[in-house]
Protein backbone atom coordinates (compact mmCIF):
# COMPACT_ATOMS: atom_id res chain seq x y z
CA UNK A 1 0.00 0.00 0.00
CA UNK A 2 3.09 2.24 0.06
CA UNK A 3 4.92 4.02 -2.72
CA UNK A 4 8.48 3.33 -3.82
CA UNK A 5 11.34 4.56 -1.66
CA UNK A 6 12.74 7.88 -2.85
CA UNK A 7 16.50 8.31 -2.97
CA UNK A 8 18.02 10.93 -0.71
CA UNK A 9 20.70 11.73 -3.29
CA UNK A 10 19.78 14.90 -5.19
CA UNK A 11 20.24 15.58 -8.88
CA UNK A 12 22.66 18.22 -10.13
CA UNK A 13 19.69 20.61 -10.27
CA UNK A 14 19.59 20.55 -6.47
CA UNK A 15 23.23 21.65 -6.11
CA UNK A 16 24.20 25.22 -5.30
CA UNK A 17 27.55 26.93 -5.47
CA UNK A 18 29.12 27.33 -2.02
CA UNK A 19 32.47 28.54 -0.75
CA UNK A 20 33.90 24.99 -0.89
CA UNK A 21 32.43 24.03 -4.28
CA UNK A 22 29.19 22.26 -5.14
CA UNK A 23 27.17 21.50 -2.03
CA UNK A 24 24.16 19.20 -2.49
CA UNK A 25 21.07 20.70 -0.86
CA UNK A 26 17.40 19.78 -0.89
CA UNK A 27 14.11 20.44 0.86
CA UNK A 28 13.38 17.43 3.05
CA UNK A 29 11.48 16.25 6.09
CA UNK A 30 13.81 15.22 8.91
CA UNK A 31 12.72 12.86 11.66
CA UNK A 32 14.89 12.61 14.77
CA UNK A 33 14.20 10.04 17.49
CA UNK A 34 15.92 9.38 20.79
CA UNK A 35 15.34 6.90 23.64
CA UNK A 36 14.39 8.48 26.97
CA UNK A 37 16.58 7.49 29.93
CA UNK A 38 19.01 5.43 27.86
CA UNK A 39 21.89 5.86 30.34
CA UNK A 40 19.71 4.63 33.22
CA UNK A 41 18.65 1.58 31.20
CA UNK A 42 22.28 0.82 30.32
CA UNK A 43 23.20 1.05 33.99
CA UNK A 44 20.46 -1.43 34.91
CA UNK A 45 21.35 -3.96 32.18
CA UNK A 46 24.04 -2.93 29.75
CA UNK A 47 24.10 -6.01 27.49
CA UNK A 48 20.34 -6.56 27.59
CA UNK A 49 19.58 -2.90 26.79
CA UNK A 50 22.07 -2.83 23.92
CA UNK A 51 20.55 -6.00 22.45
CA UNK A 52 16.99 -4.64 22.79
CA UNK A 53 17.89 -1.35 21.10
CA UNK A 54 19.51 -3.17 18.18
CA UNK A 55 16.47 -5.44 17.88
CA UNK A 56 14.11 -2.44 17.89
CA UNK A 57 16.19 -0.74 15.20
CA UNK A 58 16.20 -3.91 13.07
CA UNK A 59 12.58 -5.00 13.56
CA UNK A 60 10.77 -1.66 13.99
CA UNK A 61 12.71 1.51 13.16
CA UNK A 62 14.28 0.52 9.83
CA UNK A 63 11.24 -1.36 8.39
CA UNK A 64 8.81 1.38 9.44
CA UNK A 65 10.94 4.11 7.87
CA UNK A 66 11.21 2.07 4.65
CA UNK A 67 7.50 1.27 4.63
CA UNK A 68 6.68 4.97 4.77
CA UNK A 69 8.99 5.79 1.83
CA UNK A 70 11.79 7.23 3.95
CA UNK A 71 15.50 6.55 4.30
CA UNK A 72 17.37 5.89 7.55
CA UNK A 73 20.36 8.24 7.49
CA UNK A 74 22.04 6.93 10.62
CA UNK A 75 21.56 5.53 14.10
CA UNK A 76 23.13 7.27 17.07
CA UNK A 77 23.38 4.55 19.71
CA UNK A 78 20.14 5.46 21.44
CA UNK A 79 18.47 7.29 18.55
CA UNK A 80 18.12 7.71 14.80
CA UNK A 81 17.86 10.29 12.05
CA UNK A 82 15.72 9.67 8.96
CA UNK A 83 14.82 11.71 5.91
CA UNK A 84 11.56 11.76 3.92
CA UNK A 85 10.16 13.45 0.84
CA UNK A 86 6.61 13.47 2.24
CA UNK A 87 5.63 15.23 5.49
CA UNK A 88 2.53 13.00 5.66
CA UNK A 89 4.55 9.77 5.54
CA UNK A 90 7.16 11.17 7.96
CA UNK A 91 4.53 11.91 10.61
CA UNK A 92 2.76 8.60 10.01
CA UNK A 93 6.11 6.87 10.51
CA UNK A 94 6.58 8.64 13.85
CA UNK A 95 3.08 7.66 14.99
CA UNK A 96 3.63 4.01 14.01
CA UNK A 97 6.92 3.86 15.91
CA UNK A 98 5.44 5.41 19.06
CA UNK A 99 2.33 3.23 19.11
CA UNK A 100 4.32 0.08 18.32
CA UNK A 101 6.59 0.78 21.29
CA UNK A 102 3.52 0.67 23.57
CA UNK A 103 2.96 -2.95 22.57
CA UNK A 104 6.63 -3.83 22.94
CA UNK A 105 6.76 -2.38 26.44
CA UNK A 106 3.73 -4.41 27.54
CA UNK A 107 5.88 -7.52 27.93
CA UNK A 108 8.53 -5.70 30.01
CA UNK A 109 8.52 -4.63 33.67
CA UNK A 110 7.89 -0.89 33.97
CA UNK A 111 11.49 0.03 34.98
CA UNK A 112 12.68 -1.53 31.69
CA UNK A 113 10.23 0.32 29.41
CA UNK A 114 11.76 2.13 26.46
CA UNK A 115 10.17 5.29 25.10
CA UNK A 116 11.18 7.48 22.18
CA UNK A 117 10.90 11.22 21.82
CA UNK A 118 10.43 12.15 18.16
CA UNK A 119 10.79 15.51 16.42
CA UNK A 120 9.79 16.22 12.80
CA UNK A 121 10.79 19.29 10.77
CA UNK A 122 10.62 20.43 7.15
CA UNK A 123 13.66 22.36 6.01
CA UNK A 124 16.44 22.95 3.50
CA UNK A 125 19.35 20.66 4.36
CA UNK A 126 22.79 19.70 3.12
CA UNK A 127 23.35 16.06 2.15
CA UNK A 128 26.96 15.01 2.09
CA UNK A 129 28.77 11.67 2.43
CA UNK A 130 25.53 9.89 3.32
CA UNK A 131 24.84 12.27 6.22
CA UNK A 132 22.53 15.28 6.54
CA UNK A 133 23.32 18.72 8.01
CA UNK A 134 21.85 22.17 8.50
CA UNK A 135 19.34 24.15 10.53
CA UNK A 136 16.56 21.84 9.33
CA UNK A 137 18.22 18.97 11.17
CA UNK A 138 18.99 21.08 14.24
CA UNK A 139 15.34 22.15 14.58
CA UNK A 140 14.15 18.53 14.32
CA UNK A 141 16.64 17.58 17.04
CA UNK A 142 15.46 20.44 19.28
CA UNK A 143 11.83 19.40 18.78
CA UNK A 144 12.78 15.87 19.82
CA UNK A 145 14.36 17.32 22.97
CA UNK A 146 11.16 19.24 23.77
CA UNK A 147 8.90 16.23 23.22
CA UNK A 148 7.50 14.20 26.08
CA UNK A 149 8.23 10.45 26.20
CA UNK A 150 6.11 8.61 23.65
CA UNK A 151 5.16 11.85 21.84
CA UNK A 152 5.73 13.22 18.32
CA UNK A 153 6.36 16.99 18.07
CA UNK A 154 6.28 18.73 14.70
CA UNK A 155 7.18 22.20 13.45
CA UNK A 156 4.70 24.67 12.02
CA UNK A 157 5.99 24.00 8.51
CA UNK A 158 5.15 20.30 8.82
CA UNK A 159 1.76 21.09 10.37
CA UNK A 160 0.76 23.29 7.44
CA UNK A 161 1.52 20.44 5.05
CA UNK A 162 -0.36 17.67 6.88
CA UNK A 163 -3.17 19.32 8.86
CA UNK A 164 -5.92 18.19 6.45
CA UNK A 165 -4.27 14.96 5.31
CA UNK A 166 -3.83 12.75 8.39
CA UNK A 167 -6.72 11.61 10.56
CA UNK A 168 -5.36 12.71 13.91
CA UNK A 169 -5.42 15.66 16.28
CA UNK A 170 -2.92 18.42 16.92
CA UNK A 171 -2.28 20.60 19.93
CA UNK A 172 -0.48 23.89 19.42
CA UNK A 173 2.23 24.49 22.02
CA UNK A 174 2.90 28.00 20.77
CA UNK A 175 6.13 29.58 19.53
CA UNK A 176 9.31 28.23 21.11
CA UNK A 177 12.77 29.73 21.09
CA UNK A 178 15.16 27.15 19.67
CA UNK A 179 18.83 27.25 20.61
CA UNK A 180 21.03 28.73 17.87
CA UNK A 181 17.95 29.46 15.68
CA UNK A 182 17.12 33.16 15.21
CA UNK A 183 13.35 33.01 14.78
CA UNK A 184 10.96 31.23 17.16
CA UNK A 185 9.50 27.94 15.88
CA UNK A 186 5.80 27.12 16.11
CA UNK A 187 5.48 23.70 17.80
CA UNK A 188 2.62 21.19 17.66
CA UNK A 189 2.03 17.96 19.55
CA UNK A 190 0.57 15.16 17.39
CA UNK A 191 -2.42 13.37 18.92
CA UNK A 192 -2.98 10.07 17.02
CA UNK A 193 -6.58 9.87 18.35
CA UNK A 194 -8.45 12.65 16.53
CA UNK A 195 -10.78 13.04 19.49
CA UNK A 196 -7.96 13.37 22.01
CA UNK A 197 -7.48 17.12 21.55
CA UNK A 198 -11.22 17.76 21.93
CA UNK A 199 -11.26 15.67 25.10
CA UNK A 200 -8.29 17.58 26.50
CA UNK A 201 -9.91 20.89 25.59
CA UNK A 202 -13.20 19.85 27.25
CA UNK A 203 -11.31 18.87 30.41
CA UNK A 204 -9.59 22.26 30.50
CA UNK A 205 -12.87 24.06 29.86
CA UNK A 206 -14.59 22.01 32.56
CA UNK A 207 -11.88 22.91 35.07
CA UNK A 208 -12.13 26.59 34.14
CA UNK A 209 -15.92 26.54 34.60
CA UNK A 210 -15.49 24.80 37.93
CA UNK A 211 -13.02 27.42 39.17
CA UNK A 212 -15.24 30.29 38.00
CA UNK A 213 -18.25 28.70 39.68
CA UNK A 214 -16.25 28.29 42.89
CA UNK A 215 -15.23 31.94 42.75
CA UNK A 216 -18.85 33.04 42.33
CA UNK A 217 -19.95 30.83 45.23
CA UNK A 218 -17.26 32.28 47.47
CA UNK A 219 -18.21 35.85 46.48
CA UNK A 220 -21.93 35.16 47.00
CA UNK A 221 -21.30 33.53 50.39
CA UNK A 222 -19.11 36.42 51.47
CA UNK A 223 -21.71 38.99 50.36
CA UNK A 224 -24.51 37.27 52.29
CA UNK A 225 -22.31 36.95 55.37
CA UNK A 226 -21.27 40.64 55.14
CA UNK A 227 -24.84 42.03 54.95
CA UNK A 228 -26.10 39.62 57.60
CA UNK A 229 -23.41 40.77 60.01
CA UNK A 230 -23.88 44.42 59.09
CA UNK A 231 -27.62 44.22 59.92
CA UNK A 232 -27.01 42.57 63.27
CA UNK A 233 -23.73 44.01 64.51
CA UNK A 234 -25.16 44.61 67.96
CA UNK A 235 -26.53 41.13 68.29
CA UNK A 236 -23.25 39.59 67.18
CA UNK A 237 -21.22 41.77 69.53
CA UNK A 238 -23.47 41.00 72.50
CA UNK A 239 -23.79 37.30 71.74
CA UNK A 240 -20.63 36.28 69.93
CA UNK A 241 -20.26 33.13 72.01
CA UNK A 242 -24.00 32.40 71.93
CA UNK A 243 -25.61 33.77 68.74
CA UNK A 244 -29.21 34.89 68.86
CA UNK A 245 -32.07 33.30 67.01
CA UNK A 246 -31.89 35.55 63.94
CA UNK A 247 -28.13 35.18 63.54
CA UNK A 248 -28.42 31.41 63.87
CA UNK A 249 -31.08 31.49 61.15
CA UNK A 250 -28.75 33.38 58.80
CA UNK A 251 -25.87 30.98 59.49
CA UNK A 252 -28.18 28.07 58.82
CA UNK A 253 -29.18 29.50 55.46
CA UNK A 254 -25.56 30.05 54.37
CA UNK A 255 -23.49 27.28 55.94
CA UNK A 256 -19.73 27.62 55.66
CA UNK A 257 -18.23 25.30 53.04
CA UNK A 258 -14.61 24.38 52.64
CA UNK A 259 -13.01 25.17 49.26
CA UNK A 260 -12.34 21.43 48.81
CA UNK A 261 -16.04 20.60 49.21
CA UNK A 262 -17.02 23.33 46.77
CA UNK A 263 -14.47 22.23 44.17
CA UNK A 264 -15.54 18.59 44.37
CA UNK A 265 -19.22 19.52 44.11
CA UNK A 266 -18.69 21.87 41.20
CA UNK A 267 -16.49 19.45 39.28
CA UNK A 268 -18.97 16.62 39.74
CA UNK A 269 -21.68 18.85 38.28
CA UNK A 270 -19.63 20.21 35.39
CA UNK A 271 -17.63 17.20 34.13
CA UNK A 272 -18.81 13.79 35.34
CA UNK A 273 -16.26 11.07 34.72
CA UNK A 274 -17.08 9.00 31.65
CA UNK A 275 -16.96 5.26 32.22
CA UNK A 276 -14.10 3.38 30.61
CA UNK A 277 -15.02 0.81 27.96
CA UNK A 278 -14.72 -2.01 30.51
CA UNK A 279 -17.02 -0.17 32.93
CA UNK A 280 -19.70 0.81 30.40
CA UNK A 281 -22.92 -1.15 30.89
CA UNK A 282 -24.12 -3.23 27.94
CA UNK A 283 -26.59 -1.38 25.73
CA UNK A 284 -28.86 -2.52 22.94
CA UNK A 285 -27.07 -2.88 19.61
CA UNK A 286 -28.19 -3.11 16.00
CA UNK A 287 -28.22 -6.78 14.92
CA UNK A 288 -25.94 -7.06 11.88
CA UNK A 289 -26.99 -9.00 8.80
CA UNK A 290 -25.09 -12.27 8.78
CA UNK A 291 -24.66 -14.91 6.05
CA UNK A 292 -24.37 -18.51 7.29
CA UNK A 293 -21.79 -20.60 5.44
CA UNK A 294 -21.71 -24.41 5.64
CA UNK A 295 -17.95 -24.78 5.73
CA UNK A 296 -15.83 -27.07 3.56
CA UNK A 297 -12.34 -27.59 2.16
CA UNK A 298 -10.63 -25.22 -0.26
CA UNK A 299 -7.17 -24.31 -1.60
CA UNK A 300 -5.96 -21.25 0.28
CA UNK A 301 -3.35 -18.87 -1.15
CA UNK A 302 -1.94 -18.41 -4.65
CA UNK A 303 1.31 -18.29 -6.60
CA UNK A 304 0.81 -14.63 -7.53
CA UNK A 305 2.80 -13.26 -4.59
CA UNK A 306 5.40 -14.75 -2.23
CA UNK A 307 3.29 -13.77 0.80
CA UNK A 308 0.46 -15.98 -0.53
CA UNK A 309 2.58 -19.14 -0.80
CA UNK A 310 2.43 -22.04 -0.41
CA UNK A 311 -1.05 -22.89 -1.65
CA UNK A 312 -2.47 -25.29 0.93
CA UNK A 313 -5.70 -27.13 1.67
CA UNK A 314 -7.74 -25.76 4.57
CA UNK A 315 -10.91 -27.17 6.08
CA UNK A 316 -13.42 -24.63 7.39
CA UNK A 317 -16.08 -25.38 9.98
CA UNK A 318 -19.58 -23.86 9.57
CA UNK A 319 -19.74 -20.20 10.60
CA UNK A 320 -21.54 -16.95 9.74
CA UNK A 321 -19.94 -13.75 8.48
CA UNK A 322 -21.24 -10.20 8.06
CA UNK A 323 -22.95 -9.58 4.73
CA UNK A 324 -21.18 -6.19 4.64
CA UNK A 325 -18.34 -4.43 6.45
CA UNK A 326 -19.27 -2.72 9.72
CA UNK A 327 -20.75 0.71 8.92
CA UNK A 328 -20.24 4.11 10.49
CA UNK A 329 -23.73 3.92 12.02
CA UNK A 330 -23.06 0.50 13.57
CA UNK A 331 -19.64 1.49 14.90
CA UNK A 332 -20.77 4.73 16.47
CA UNK A 333 -23.41 2.90 18.52
CA UNK A 334 -20.41 1.40 20.31
CA UNK A 335 -18.82 4.85 20.67
CA UNK A 336 -22.06 6.29 22.08
CA UNK A 337 -22.15 3.42 24.57
CA UNK A 338 -18.62 4.47 25.69
CA UNK A 339 -17.37 0.99 24.78
CA UNK A 340 -15.30 2.08 21.76
CA UNK A 341 -12.60 4.69 22.29
CA UNK A 342 -12.97 6.08 18.77
CA UNK A 343 -15.90 7.80 17.06
CA UNK A 344 -15.56 7.36 13.30
CA UNK A 345 -16.66 9.90 10.70
CA UNK A 346 -18.49 9.57 7.39
CA UNK A 347 -21.94 8.75 6.04
CA UNK A 348 -23.96 6.34 8.16
CA UNK A 349 -23.98 3.69 5.42
CA UNK A 350 -20.25 4.02 4.63
CA UNK A 351 -17.80 1.52 6.14
CA UNK A 352 -16.18 2.45 9.44
CA UNK A 353 -12.57 3.44 8.69
CA UNK A 354 -9.40 4.59 10.46
CA UNK A 355 -9.83 1.65 12.83
CA UNK A 356 -6.91 -0.21 14.40
CA UNK A 357 -7.01 -3.94 15.14
CA UNK A 358 -7.31 -3.14 18.84
CA UNK A 359 -10.25 -0.84 18.07
CA UNK A 360 -11.88 -3.65 16.09
CA UNK A 361 -11.53 -6.00 19.07
CA UNK A 362 -13.21 -3.40 21.29
CA UNK A 363 -16.14 -3.29 18.89
CA UNK A 364 -16.72 -7.05 18.70
CA UNK A 365 -16.39 -7.33 22.50
CA UNK A 366 -19.08 -4.66 22.96
CA UNK A 367 -21.33 -6.22 20.30
CA UNK A 368 -21.05 -9.60 22.04
CA UNK A 369 -22.02 -8.08 25.39
CA UNK A 370 -24.85 -6.01 23.96
CA UNK A 371 -26.43 -8.87 21.98
CA UNK A 372 -25.32 -11.76 24.20
CA UNK A 373 -23.95 -13.51 21.11
CA UNK A 374 -20.29 -14.53 20.59
CA UNK A 375 -19.36 -12.17 17.77
CA UNK A 376 -15.68 -12.04 16.80
CA UNK A 377 -13.33 -11.17 13.96
CA UNK A 378 -13.13 -13.83 11.23
CA UNK A 379 -9.97 -15.85 10.89
CA UNK A 380 -7.84 -15.27 7.82
CA UNK A 381 -8.83 -18.67 6.41
CA UNK A 382 -12.53 -18.00 7.01
CA UNK A 383 -12.26 -14.63 5.30
CA UNK A 384 -10.62 -16.05 2.16
CA UNK A 385 -13.06 -18.98 2.03
CA UNK A 386 -15.96 -16.51 2.22
CA UNK A 387 -14.38 -14.11 -0.32
CA UNK A 388 -13.89 -16.86 -2.90
CA UNK A 389 -17.58 -17.67 -2.80
CA UNK A 390 -16.99 -21.30 -3.73
CA UNK A 391 -14.67 -20.46 -6.65
CA UNK A 392 -10.93 -21.02 -7.19
CA UNK A 393 -10.42 -18.37 -9.90
CA UNK A 394 -8.23 -15.27 -9.56
CA UNK A 395 -11.30 -13.16 -8.72
CA UNK A 396 -14.62 -14.52 -7.58
CA UNK A 397 -16.12 -13.61 -11.00
CA UNK A 398 -13.28 -15.15 -13.09
CA UNK A 399 -9.62 -14.87 -13.99
CA UNK A 400 -9.79 -11.46 -15.68
CA UNK A 401 -10.42 -8.09 -14.05
CA UNK A 402 -13.71 -6.43 -14.93
CA UNK A 403 -14.80 -2.82 -14.47
CA UNK A 404 -17.70 -2.27 -12.10
CA UNK A 405 -17.27 -5.44 -10.02
CA UNK A 406 -15.52 -3.91 -7.00
CA UNK A 407 -14.78 -0.54 -5.42
CA UNK A 408 -11.07 -0.17 -6.12
CA UNK A 409 -8.77 2.32 -7.82
CA UNK A 410 -9.39 2.36 -11.56
CA UNK A 411 -11.73 -0.65 -11.52
CA UNK A 412 -14.99 0.64 -10.06
CA UNK A 413 -16.20 2.56 -13.09
CA UNK A 414 -16.63 5.72 -10.98
CA UNK A 415 -14.22 8.64 -10.38
CA UNK A 416 -11.72 8.26 -7.54
CA UNK A 417 -12.74 9.89 -4.25
CA UNK A 418 -11.30 10.47 -0.80
CA UNK A 419 -14.10 8.42 0.78
CA UNK A 420 -15.04 4.77 0.15
CA UNK A 421 -18.75 5.30 -0.57
CA UNK A 422 -21.60 3.21 0.84
CA UNK A 423 -21.22 -0.50 1.59
CA UNK A 424 -23.02 -2.97 -0.64
CA UNK A 425 -22.93 -0.70 -3.70
CA UNK A 426 -21.41 -3.41 -5.93
CA UNK A 427 -22.52 -6.94 -6.80
CA UNK A 428 -22.27 -9.59 -4.09
CA UNK A 429 -20.18 -12.71 -4.60
CA UNK A 430 -21.84 -16.16 -5.01
CA UNK A 431 -22.21 -16.45 -1.21
CA UNK A 432 -24.21 -13.19 -1.13
CA UNK A 433 -21.38 -11.22 0.51
CA UNK A 434 -20.69 -7.62 -0.45
CA UNK A 435 -17.31 -5.85 -0.61
CA UNK A 436 -15.18 -8.96 -0.21
CA UNK A 437 -12.53 -7.14 -2.24
CA UNK A 438 -12.16 -3.36 -2.43
CA UNK A 439 -14.11 -0.67 -0.50
CA UNK A 440 -12.24 -1.07 2.80
CA UNK A 441 -9.34 -3.11 4.22
CA UNK A 442 -10.70 -5.59 6.76
CA UNK A 443 -9.00 -6.81 9.92
CA UNK A 444 -8.96 -10.52 10.76
CA UNK A 445 -7.92 -12.33 13.92
CA UNK A 446 -4.54 -13.64 12.74
CA UNK A 447 -1.12 -12.23 13.54
CA UNK A 448 0.92 -11.01 10.58
CA UNK A 449 3.17 -13.62 8.94
CA UNK A 450 5.40 -13.33 5.86
CA UNK A 451 3.86 -16.36 4.18
CA UNK A 452 1.90 -19.55 4.94
CA UNK A 453 4.81 -21.70 6.09
CA UNK A 454 3.51 -23.36 9.28
CA UNK A 455 -0.02 -21.97 8.96
CA UNK A 456 -2.89 -24.01 10.50
CA UNK A 457 -5.01 -26.08 8.10
CA UNK A 458 -8.16 -26.30 10.23
CA UNK A 459 -9.35 -22.74 9.62
CA UNK A 460 -8.33 -21.49 13.07
CA UNK A 461 -6.55 -18.18 13.66
CA UNK A 462 -2.75 -18.17 13.49
CA UNK A 463 -1.78 -16.22 16.60
CA UNK A 464 1.08 -15.82 19.07
CA UNK A 465 1.34 -14.14 22.47
CA UNK A 466 3.64 -11.33 21.28
CA UNK A 467 1.92 -10.11 18.14
CA UNK A 468 2.90 -6.65 16.92
CA UNK A 469 0.92 -6.77 13.67
CA UNK A 470 -2.27 -8.37 12.36
CA UNK A 471 -3.55 -9.38 8.95
CA UNK A 472 -5.72 -7.21 6.69
CA UNK A 473 -7.71 -8.60 3.76
CA UNK A 474 -9.74 -7.17 0.86
CA UNK A 475 -7.79 -4.08 -0.22
CA UNK A 476 -9.59 -0.74 -0.30
CA UNK A 477 -11.05 1.85 -2.65
CA UNK A 478 -7.57 3.41 -2.82
CA UNK A 479 -5.84 0.21 -4.06
CA UNK A 480 -5.74 -1.16 -7.59
CA UNK A 481 -7.37 -4.37 -8.82
CA UNK A 482 -4.48 -6.60 -7.64
CA UNK A 483 -5.63 -6.07 -4.06
CA UNK A 484 -9.17 -7.25 -4.85
CA UNK A 485 -8.03 -10.86 -5.36
CA UNK A 486 -9.42 -13.11 -2.58
CA UNK A 487 -5.88 -14.42 -1.95
CA UNK A 488 -4.35 -10.95 -1.45
CA UNK A 489 -3.09 -10.36 2.08
CA UNK A 490 -1.38 -7.57 3.99
CA UNK A 491 -0.57 -6.75 7.61
CA UNK A 492 -0.29 -3.61 9.72
CA UNK A 493 0.64 -2.61 13.25
CA UNK A 494 -1.86 -3.80 15.85
CA UNK A 495 -2.47 -0.51 17.65
CA UNK A 496 -2.16 1.94 14.75
CA UNK A 497 -5.09 3.50 12.91
CA UNK A 498 -5.01 4.02 9.16
CA UNK A 499 -7.61 5.77 6.96
CA UNK A 500 -8.45 2.71 4.80
CA UNK A 501 -8.73 0.11 7.58
CA UNK A 502 -12.10 -1.25 8.75
CA UNK A 503 -13.60 -4.60 9.72
CA UNK A 504 -16.19 -7.29 9.13
CA UNK A 505 -17.52 -9.56 11.87
CA UNK A 506 -18.09 -13.30 12.18
CA UNK A 507 -19.78 -15.72 14.59
CA UNK A 508 -19.61 -19.46 15.18
CA UNK A 509 -22.80 -21.54 15.35
Describe this structure in words.
The chain has 509 residues and is α+β, with helices and mostly antiparallel strands. The protein has three domains: 12-194, Nucleotide cyclase, GGDEF domain (Alpha-Beta Plaits, 2-Layer Sandwich), CATH 3.30.70; 198-270; 290-507, paralog of FGE (formylglycine-generating enzyme). It has helices at residues 38-44, 46-67, 87-105, 135-146, 156-162, 196-231, 233-238, 245-253, 259-270, 328-336, 357-371, 380-388; strands spanning 15-18, 21-35, 70-75, 79-84, 116-128, 131-133, 152-155, 169-176, 185-191, 290-293, 296-300, 312-316, 319-322, 375-376, 441-447, 469-473, 489-493, 501-503, 506-507. The strands form four sheets. Strands 1, 2, 3, 4, 5, 6, 7, 8 and 9 form a nine-stranded mixed β-sheet that branches. A four-stranded antiparallel β-sheet has the order 10-13-19-14. Strands 17-16-15-18 form a four-stranded mixed β-sheet. The radius of gyration is 29 Å and the shape is globular. The model is unreliable at 1-20, 194-201 and 233-282 (pLDDT under 50).
Amino acid sequence: MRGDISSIHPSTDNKTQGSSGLTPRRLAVIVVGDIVGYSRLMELDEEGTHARVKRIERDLIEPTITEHSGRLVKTTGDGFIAIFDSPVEAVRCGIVIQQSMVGRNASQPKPAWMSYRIGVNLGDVIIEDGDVYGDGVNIAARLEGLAEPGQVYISGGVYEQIKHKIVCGYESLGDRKIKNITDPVRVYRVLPDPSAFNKARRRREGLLVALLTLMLLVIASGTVWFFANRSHTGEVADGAANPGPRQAEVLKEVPPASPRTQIETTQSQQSPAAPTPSQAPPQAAREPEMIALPGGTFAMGSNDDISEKPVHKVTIKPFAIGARPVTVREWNECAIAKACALEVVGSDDAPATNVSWSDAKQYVAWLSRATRKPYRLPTEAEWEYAARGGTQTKYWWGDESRVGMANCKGCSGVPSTDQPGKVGAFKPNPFGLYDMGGTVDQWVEDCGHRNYQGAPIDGSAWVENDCGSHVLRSGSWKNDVRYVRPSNRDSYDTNVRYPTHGLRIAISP
